[in-house]
Specification:
CATH class of the domain at 466-576: Alpha Beta
CATH topology of the domain at 466-576: Alpha-Beta Plaits
CATH superfamily of the domain at 466-576: Reverse transcriptase/Diguanylate cyclase domain
Order of helices and strands: HHHHHHHHHHHHHHHHHHHHEHEEHEH
Shape: globular
Structural class: mainly alpha
Number of strands: 4
Amino acid sequence: MVTLLRASLGLMLLWLSSTLPVLANGPIPSLDSVDLAISNMDTSQGDVLDDYWSKHYAQAPPDWQMRWHLLRCEVAHMESDGAEVQRQVSEGKALAARAGNTVVPLYLSLCESRYQYSQLNLEVALAMQDDVINQAIDQNDPALLALAYTDRAITRSDSSYVARAIDDLTLALRQAELVKHAPWQSVSLPQIYFVFGRTFYYLENYARADESIKQAIQLVDPDTPLAWFIRFNYANVLSSQERLQEAQHQLDRLNDNPPHFGKFYRGYVELFRAELLLQLNRPQEAIPLARRAAMDFARVDLTAPYAKALIIEGQSNVMLGNREQGWAKIEQAQTLLAEVEENRGDWGYLAKSWRWAARYHHQQGNDTDAYLAMEQYAKVYARFLEKQQSDQLAQQQQKLSQEVDRHRQRLVSSSEAQFQLEQSLLMWRGSTVVLGLIVMGVFIWRFWPVTHNKAAETPPEDWREHLVQLMNLSRQNERPLSVILARDTDHPISRLVAQLERDLRPSDRVLQPDRHTALLLLDQATEGELAWRLASLTDLMRNSGRTDVMLAKARVHGFDDPESLLSRLEYELISQSIPSRSDPQSGV
């Protein structure tokens, strides 16, 4: 009986120890190192956080507990664990409500928006990020704003609001500069620069994309998962531009510490590497990667990427001379893709496979098979273009609907304000007219003998209208337009206008957006002239002892409006003030 009682007590103690936090042994550990690792995409910190929960959570102060929930939510969203994200958001917000904390719920909402973005719920994510930013502006928390602007830039660029994404990233950099201490969550400068590069790539500004991503690589700790992530995605960007050798160079420099983004990520990584090796004419190396990717996708029933992996394996076999086996794989994959794409409507990869087949048959001299493959390619590609156009139309309709809603809101607000203004005007208009006549009579009587007629002063020029006009002329006439921004934060820029206007052509302009800023608009300036003018102005400022004047240059693109152009120039200025992490051993 005693033995049975002891056994029961032992089992009960074992159960309690596995379900309840134990008393902490020693002081409560800081979460700063965990936070830094998570900002570098280290999902293994989930195990560290779970260990802290069992040992320290119950005895920790509320701020430590709230930060624990926030960091655990970050790990969950990177691992695509929606249930865990919701649990941490719910428990963290409840704890924050009891503690009277209004900042942590915004961080948790931001975490939830990232998960929604990862599930392609872009409208939901964007609405949540808008709400966080609107509330965060009153919280005086630059780290929160930097994170929120960066997240919204990612969502906006994927929602075709690319110019607005550049604006958000410029704001994110400004806020990141203000961060002295981040008590809740760290801000990653390398990640902001990587998102800049990603956004410039969407704008087809490949030179700026390269510049921004290389800046991210220089700033990031080279042994972290974030460094792996940036290099891998840079390889993807290079591959899409047919810069295959450069892409392979980035893959060769990947560290051995990749991030773990759930059960599908490894398959996509191996699929991309297999496709790149095939493009580099290395089919023997591509086959095992394609097979592993196919096995990963088959286990989770992802038909479309599974079929793509089969196509790469089949194409590799065909190139190695195993034609029967290779074409069997390709035909199997094309059948699967046709079925799944019929429902989903994305015909791009299927068209690509038929084009490859047509090119291969033509190279082998099989013109009949090449013609049949091209016929299939034409049919599938027509469907692909049809889907692309319908997607663009849907996006335009959505944007138009949002603009209409915003216009209605502005109209309602302006109508109310106009009504109140008219009521106020009616109350004092009569008395003002009488008083004005009296004052005018006294003024004329007193000053008439000594006054002289003066020419009416011309109103100051509207620099924004001039900028819009010049940008529109540049687009209409297809004439390149370049801009140099000069800023003197300590003195009025008007003192330097004469120096800035030196050697300008008649068609060039100098505008002053504010007291400390000037814009030099250079009509038809080539890249070489733009670089020369920036260098000569830099020398001129240095020789004049005005080393505090900051300069930035940009080319005007067809997608630009004044806000996006100024945002890119601001980005240039901010980038100059952030030092790069030197890497003396080798280049990027």
